[in-house]
Amino acid sequence: MKSSMIDSIKSLPPLSKTIMDINRVYANEDASINDLVKVLEHDPMIVANLLKTANSPLYSFGKEIKNVAHAVSLFGMSMTRSIALGNSVRKLLNVDMQPYGITSDDFANIASKQAALIFSWYKKVDKSKADELYLAAFLQETGKIIISSDVIQEDEATSFESEIEFANNIADVERAYVEVSSAEVTAEVFQHWNFSNHFVEMIRYADKPEDAPQEIREYSMALHIVKTAVSINKPLDEQSINFALRKARDAGYDHELLEDSIDEMLDNIQG
Predict the structure, then answer these.
(1) If 249 and its partner were Cys, which of 68, 104, 129, 255 is the partner (CB 3.0–4.6 Å)?
(2) For position 269, what pLDDT does the model report?
(3) What is the structure's pLDDT at 271?
(4) Which residues lie closer than 8 Å to 265 by C-beta, 6 or more apart?
(5) Taking a C-beta distance cutoff of 8 angstroms, is the pair 149, 122 a contact?
(6) Which residues cross the membrane (predicted)?
Protein backbone atom coordinates (compact mmCIF):
# COMPACT_ATOMS: atom_id res chain seq x y z
CA MET A 1 0.00 0.00 0.00
CA LYS A 2 1.25 3.48 -0.84
CA SER A 3 2.69 5.40 2.09
CA SER A 4 0.31 8.30 1.42
CA MET A 5 -2.67 6.01 1.92
CA ILE A 6 -1.17 4.46 5.05
CA ASP A 7 -0.74 7.96 6.44
CA SER A 8 -4.36 8.81 5.55
CA ILE A 9 -5.63 5.79 7.46
CA LYS A 10 -3.42 6.44 10.48
CA SER A 11 -4.67 10.03 10.65
CA LEU A 12 -8.36 9.10 10.60
CA PRO A 13 -10.25 10.61 13.54
CA PRO A 14 -12.00 8.30 16.00
CA LEU A 15 -15.60 7.34 15.45
CA SER A 16 -18.14 9.73 16.93
CA LYS A 17 -19.42 9.49 20.51
CA THR A 18 -22.85 8.53 19.18
CA ILE A 19 -21.40 5.58 17.29
CA MET A 20 -19.42 4.51 20.33
CA ASP A 21 -22.61 4.70 22.40
CA ILE A 22 -24.50 2.68 19.76
CA ASN A 23 -21.78 0.00 19.86
CA ARG A 24 -21.92 -0.02 23.66
CA VAL A 25 -25.70 -0.54 23.69
CA TYR A 26 -25.46 -3.21 20.98
CA ALA A 27 -22.83 -5.13 22.95
CA ASN A 28 -24.96 -5.08 26.11
CA GLU A 29 -27.13 -8.20 26.14
CA ASP A 30 -29.51 -6.53 28.61
CA ALA A 31 -30.05 -3.44 26.46
CA SER A 32 -33.39 -2.87 24.76
CA ILE A 33 -34.53 -1.19 21.59
CA ASN A 34 -35.60 1.77 23.74
CA ASP A 35 -32.01 2.14 24.97
CA LEU A 36 -30.82 2.32 21.36
CA VAL A 37 -33.52 4.81 20.42
CA LYS A 38 -32.44 7.14 23.26
CA VAL A 39 -28.88 7.15 21.89
CA LEU A 40 -29.97 7.73 18.30
CA GLU A 41 -32.21 10.65 19.22
CA HIS A 42 -29.14 12.66 20.23
CA ASP A 43 -27.91 12.70 16.61
CA PRO A 44 -30.37 14.31 14.15
CA MET A 45 -28.23 13.34 11.12
CA ILE A 46 -28.29 9.65 12.02
CA VAL A 47 -32.05 9.85 12.63
CA ALA A 48 -32.59 11.50 9.22
CA ASN A 49 -30.51 8.86 7.44
CA LEU A 50 -32.24 6.04 9.30
CA LEU A 51 -35.69 7.31 8.33
CA LYS A 52 -34.56 7.85 4.73
CA THR A 53 -33.35 4.25 4.61
CA ALA A 54 -36.51 2.91 6.25
CA ASN A 55 -38.63 4.62 3.62
CA SER A 56 -36.46 3.39 0.75
CA PRO A 57 -38.09 1.00 -1.74
CA LEU A 58 -35.28 -1.44 -0.92
CA TYR A 59 -37.17 -2.52 2.21
CA SER A 60 -40.82 -2.14 1.21
CA PHE A 61 -42.22 -1.74 4.71
CA GLY A 62 -45.54 -0.76 3.15
CA LYS A 63 -46.20 2.53 4.92
CA GLU A 64 -44.30 5.69 5.74
CA ILE A 65 -41.95 5.42 8.73
CA LYS A 66 -42.12 8.72 10.60
CA ASN A 67 -40.16 8.22 13.81
CA VAL A 68 -36.93 6.63 14.92
CA ALA A 69 -38.56 4.17 17.36
CA HIS A 70 -40.70 2.72 14.58
CA ALA A 71 -37.66 2.42 12.27
CA VAL A 72 -35.59 0.66 14.94
CA SER A 73 -38.42 -1.75 15.74
CA LEU A 74 -38.62 -2.72 12.06
CA PHE A 75 -34.90 -2.98 11.39
CA GLY A 76 -33.85 -4.45 14.72
CA MET A 77 -30.76 -3.44 16.69
CA SER A 78 -28.18 -5.03 14.41
CA MET A 79 -29.37 -3.50 11.15
CA THR A 80 -29.99 -0.13 12.82
CA ARG A 81 -26.40 -0.14 14.08
CA SER A 82 -25.16 -0.98 10.60
CA ILE A 83 -27.10 1.85 8.94
CA ALA A 84 -25.98 4.39 11.55
CA LEU A 85 -22.37 3.29 11.33
CA GLY A 86 -22.28 3.27 7.53
CA ASN A 87 -23.67 6.77 7.17
CA SER A 88 -21.44 8.14 9.93
CA VAL A 89 -18.31 6.66 8.34
CA ARG A 90 -19.09 8.25 4.98
CA LYS A 91 -19.69 11.61 6.65
CA LEU A 92 -16.46 11.31 8.63
CA LEU A 93 -14.38 10.52 5.54
CA ASN A 94 -15.66 13.44 3.46
CA VAL A 95 -16.76 11.50 0.39
CA ASP A 96 -15.69 12.59 -3.11
CA MET A 97 -16.25 9.71 -5.52
CA GLN A 98 -15.64 11.55 -8.81
CA PRO A 99 -12.81 9.18 -9.87
CA TYR A 100 -15.31 6.33 -9.75
CA GLY A 101 -17.76 8.31 -11.90
CA ILE A 102 -20.44 8.52 -9.21
CA THR A 103 -21.71 11.02 -6.65
CA SER A 104 -21.60 10.62 -2.89
CA ASP A 105 -25.36 9.88 -2.98
CA ASP A 106 -24.76 7.17 -5.60
CA PHE A 107 -22.09 5.68 -3.37
CA ALA A 108 -24.41 5.61 -0.36
CA ASN A 109 -27.16 4.06 -2.47
CA ILE A 110 -24.86 1.31 -3.72
CA ALA A 111 -23.79 0.50 -0.15
CA SER A 112 -27.45 0.27 0.86
CA LYS A 113 -28.25 -2.02 -2.06
CA GLN A 114 -25.32 -4.32 -1.33
CA ALA A 115 -26.39 -4.57 2.31
CA ALA A 116 -30.06 -5.11 1.52
CA LEU A 117 -29.26 -7.75 -1.08
CA ILE A 118 -26.92 -9.77 1.11
CA PHE A 119 -29.43 -9.71 3.98
CA SER A 120 -32.31 -10.83 1.77
CA TRP A 121 -30.15 -13.55 0.20
CA TYR A 122 -28.54 -14.87 3.38
CA LYS A 123 -31.79 -15.10 5.29
CA LYS A 124 -32.47 -17.94 2.83
CA VAL A 125 -28.95 -19.42 3.01
CA ASP A 126 -27.93 -19.18 6.68
CA LYS A 127 -29.93 -16.75 8.78
CA SER A 128 -27.38 -16.86 11.63
CA LYS A 129 -24.83 -15.09 9.40
CA ALA A 130 -27.16 -12.54 7.83
CA ASP A 131 -26.73 -9.73 10.39
CA GLU A 132 -22.94 -9.85 10.37
CA LEU A 133 -22.83 -9.91 6.58
CA TYR A 134 -25.27 -7.00 6.42
CA LEU A 135 -22.85 -4.75 8.33
CA ALA A 136 -19.86 -5.92 6.29
CA ALA A 137 -21.67 -5.37 2.99
CA PHE A 138 -22.79 -1.92 4.11
CA LEU A 139 -19.19 -0.92 4.82
CA GLN A 140 -17.10 -3.02 2.45
CA GLU A 141 -16.63 -0.29 -0.18
CA THR A 142 -15.38 2.28 2.36
CA GLY A 143 -11.81 1.89 1.08
CA LYS A 144 -12.89 3.44 -2.21
CA ILE A 145 -13.18 6.78 -0.42
CA ILE A 146 -9.48 6.63 0.54
CA ILE A 147 -8.48 5.46 -2.95
CA SER A 148 -10.57 8.19 -4.57
CA SER A 149 -8.86 10.84 -2.45
CA ASP A 150 -5.41 9.52 -3.35
CA VAL A 151 -6.20 9.37 -7.07
CA ILE A 152 -7.44 12.98 -6.96
CA GLN A 153 -4.29 14.11 -5.15
CA GLU A 154 -2.14 12.40 -7.79
CA ASP A 155 -4.12 14.18 -10.54
CA GLU A 156 -5.12 10.85 -12.07
CA ALA A 157 -8.89 11.14 -11.62
CA THR A 158 -9.73 11.42 -15.32
CA SER A 159 -7.73 8.41 -16.47
CA PHE A 160 -8.87 6.36 -13.46
CA GLU A 161 -12.52 7.18 -14.15
CA SER A 162 -12.21 6.21 -17.82
CA GLU A 163 -10.84 2.79 -16.87
CA ILE A 164 -13.41 2.22 -14.11
CA GLU A 165 -16.33 3.01 -16.42
CA PHE A 166 -15.94 -0.15 -18.50
CA ALA A 167 -13.99 -2.38 -16.10
CA ASN A 168 -15.25 -5.87 -15.33
CA ASN A 169 -12.73 -6.14 -12.49
CA ILE A 170 -12.59 -2.88 -10.56
CA ALA A 171 -10.05 -4.29 -8.09
CA ASP A 172 -7.52 -4.72 -10.92
CA VAL A 173 -7.87 -1.05 -11.86
CA GLU A 174 -7.41 -0.03 -8.23
CA ARG A 175 -4.27 -2.14 -7.88
CA ALA A 176 -2.82 -0.62 -11.05
CA TYR A 177 -3.15 2.88 -9.59
CA VAL A 178 -2.64 2.49 -5.83
CA GLU A 179 -1.11 -1.01 -5.44
CA VAL A 180 -4.05 -2.44 -3.45
CA SER A 181 -7.76 -3.06 -3.88
CA SER A 182 -10.44 -1.25 -1.91
CA ALA A 183 -11.16 -4.40 0.12
CA GLU A 184 -7.64 -4.30 1.55
CA VAL A 185 -7.92 -0.58 2.26
CA THR A 186 -11.30 -1.04 3.95
CA ALA A 187 -9.82 -3.75 6.16
CA GLU A 188 -7.06 -1.41 7.28
CA VAL A 189 -9.57 1.35 8.03
CA PHE A 190 -11.65 -0.86 10.33
CA GLN A 191 -8.57 -2.37 11.91
CA HIS A 192 -7.56 1.20 12.75
CA TRP A 193 -10.96 1.61 14.41
CA ASN A 194 -10.49 -1.63 16.40
CA PHE A 195 -13.23 -3.71 14.81
CA SER A 196 -13.07 -7.46 15.40
CA ASN A 197 -10.44 -9.43 13.53
CA HIS A 198 -13.14 -11.65 11.98
CA PHE A 199 -14.95 -8.62 10.57
CA VAL A 200 -11.74 -7.06 9.26
CA GLU A 201 -10.47 -10.23 7.60
CA MET A 202 -13.73 -11.17 5.86
CA ILE A 203 -13.64 -7.77 4.16
CA ARG A 204 -9.89 -7.94 3.44
CA TYR A 205 -10.40 -10.97 1.20
CA ALA A 206 -13.63 -9.83 -0.46
CA ASP A 207 -11.84 -9.06 -3.73
CA LYS A 208 -10.00 -12.43 -3.69
CA PRO A 209 -12.17 -14.78 -1.62
CA GLU A 210 -10.39 -17.86 -2.97
CA ASP A 211 -7.31 -16.74 -0.99
CA ALA A 212 -9.22 -16.30 2.29
CA PRO A 213 -8.53 -18.56 5.28
CA GLN A 214 -11.07 -21.37 5.46
CA GLU A 215 -12.87 -19.99 8.51
CA ILE A 216 -13.85 -16.75 6.72
CA ARG A 217 -13.95 -17.86 3.08
CA GLU A 218 -17.74 -18.15 2.94
CA TYR A 219 -18.16 -14.63 4.31
CA SER A 220 -15.63 -13.16 1.88
CA MET A 221 -17.19 -15.02 -1.04
CA ALA A 222 -20.68 -13.76 -0.16
CA LEU A 223 -19.40 -10.18 0.00
CA HIS A 224 -17.60 -10.65 -3.32
CA ILE A 225 -20.71 -11.99 -5.03
CA VAL A 226 -22.87 -9.12 -3.81
CA LYS A 227 -20.35 -6.46 -4.82
CA THR A 228 -20.25 -8.11 -8.24
CA ALA A 229 -24.03 -7.86 -8.63
CA VAL A 230 -24.19 -4.31 -7.27
CA SER A 231 -20.92 -3.03 -8.70
CA ILE A 232 -19.84 0.58 -8.47
CA ASN A 233 -19.84 1.10 -12.24
CA LYS A 234 -22.68 -1.22 -13.33
CA PRO A 235 -25.00 -1.78 -10.34
CA LEU A 236 -27.60 -4.44 -11.01
CA ASP A 237 -27.23 -4.33 -14.78
CA GLU A 238 -27.70 -7.57 -16.70
CA GLN A 239 -23.98 -8.29 -17.06
CA SER A 240 -23.24 -7.69 -13.36
CA ILE A 241 -26.12 -9.91 -12.29
CA ASN A 242 -25.04 -12.72 -14.63
CA PHE A 243 -21.45 -12.51 -13.35
CA ALA A 244 -22.70 -12.68 -9.76
CA LEU A 245 -24.98 -15.66 -10.43
CA ARG A 246 -22.13 -17.51 -12.12
CA LYS A 247 -19.82 -16.85 -9.19
CA ALA A 248 -22.51 -18.05 -6.77
CA ARG A 249 -23.02 -21.25 -8.75
CA ASP A 250 -19.25 -21.88 -9.02
CA ALA A 251 -18.91 -21.35 -5.24
CA GLY A 252 -21.47 -24.08 -4.57
CA TYR A 253 -24.47 -21.90 -3.69
CA ASP A 254 -28.00 -22.55 -4.83
CA HIS A 255 -27.77 -19.59 -7.22
CA GLU A 256 -31.56 -19.49 -7.60
CA LEU A 257 -31.83 -18.14 -4.04
CA LEU A 258 -29.61 -15.21 -5.01
CA GLU A 259 -31.55 -14.73 -8.24
CA ASP A 260 -34.81 -14.60 -6.27
CA SER A 261 -33.41 -11.91 -3.97
CA ILE A 262 -32.15 -9.87 -6.92
CA ASP A 263 -35.55 -10.13 -8.62
CA GLU A 264 -37.26 -9.02 -5.41
CA MET A 265 -34.95 -6.03 -5.12
CA LEU A 266 -35.49 -5.01 -8.75
CA ASP A 267 -39.26 -5.31 -8.30
CA ASN A 268 -39.13 -3.11 -5.19
CA ILE A 269 -36.96 -0.49 -6.90
CA GLN A 270 -39.10 -0.38 -10.04
CA GLY A 271 -42.42 -0.83 -8.33
Answers:
(1) 255
(2) 86
(3) 65
(4) 58, 113, 116, 117, 120, 236
(5) no
(6) none
